[in-house]
């Protein structure tokens, strides 16, 4: 027997964006249901931000112990890394974070939760598990994303993993080949290397994380290659499987052809929006070349339809705070439909939790038109506080409008970039000029004095 539910707003997906959309719809006086077929708990809590930072924290502890001698502090004896203990803490704390999210979902009334996978019958009718029909006035797609795995990697069989699988390990493996030097590849590759795992990190076309500034990218490549095998423009000759090992033949950094065997191959080749099984062909809305609905980036509305898309499913800025903001916008506009309004868009900020950290704020180098901006630069190699802490690796570029002196954005690699990034994002959102930023207080001695040096360099070029 088919059950029918009539509702104002149906939200597909109970992740960060979906839960925010549900709450926004209810706050605007509409009835709503949230539909989820998988386990509750966001991507960030289960397999993203939080477990990866737990692994990184363990890696940083091991790394610091190995590098105390320069301070005159000597750690006698062997440093032992217990992989089982590392992964046990990662999973225990991960489950704790997931528990917070799950408890939040449990507070949603039972009648507002539908368990199953939804697909569109038409713009506002959904079929869930073939036995529940949901007739909604509006729909929010918040189905998240999944790791992308190139077809060629399937040759590795069960030796092939994605980042989700790492956090299911009971112990650390002996060796891992990582394909993809983006955010996930850099963070996990460096962390595993510091925890004693043999790591080879391969990329194509020379990319390093999300960096687009050639000078910063070149500097970052050099820094990471000094610590572990990192080739962002690798030449892979052959991939295959030998017994219970993955086998890869490649040209190493010395130009030699080598063959190595690995316990696992980690595909970190980006993520794909989870929209392929939604039956979007039944809606009549326009889809792009990747099969993702075409939508307004400000209102998140798909064309003029009563369908909205938020979070990782739209693949604009796959970050937790952006997903929360977008979920609120989509849920609010679904409630207000057909009267939709632009949602909150904060200053763009992104951080890679490598060491040194990578960060970007506002416009990247690639977003700027040649001749329209000036660049302020600072090296952290001789920056006072950075040298004191022996964290003096880094290069920063800040960009300013050549005519107005407005701060436009920045790209850099360096110590405590996550903290400086917030200072810059707030400055950008406040619409400050380089001169106004220099009027702000800078304590001594702090790493932020390096930022001041870059701002002074930009200011001098603006006034040359």
UniProtKB/TrEMBL annotation:
Residues 8-327 form the FAD/NAD(P)-binding domain. One of its GO terms (molecular function) is flavin adenine dinucleotide binding. Its cofactor is FAD. Disulfide bonds join 44-49. NAD(+) binds at residues 180-187, 270. It is an enzyme of class 1 (oxidoreductase). Binds 1 FAD per subunit. InterPro entries: FAD/NAD-bd_sf, FAD/NAD-binding_dom, FAD/NAD-linked_Rdtase_dimer_sf, Mn/Fe_SOD_N_sf, Pyr_nuc-diS_OxRdtase, Pyr_nucl-diS_OxRdtase_dimer. Keywords: FAD, Flavoprotein, NAD, Nucleotide-binding, Oxidoreductase. It comes from the Bacteria. Gene3D superfamilies: 3.30.390.30, FAD/NAD(P)-binding domain, Fe,Mn superoxide dismutase (SOD) domain. The active site is at residue 444. FAD binds at residues 53, 143-145, 312. Residues 350-454 form the Pyridine nucleotide-disulphide oxidoreductase dimerisation domain. Its EC number is 1.8.1.4. Belongs to the class-I pyridine nucleotide-disulfide oxidoreductase family. PANTHER family: MERCURIC REDUCTASE, PYRIDINE NUCLEOTIDE-DISULFIDE OXIDOREDUCTASE RCLA-RELATED. This is Dihydrolipoyl dehydrogenase. It comes from Amantichitinum ursilacus. The lineage of its organism: Bacteria, Pseudomonadati, Pseudomonadota, Betaproteobacteria, Neisseriales.
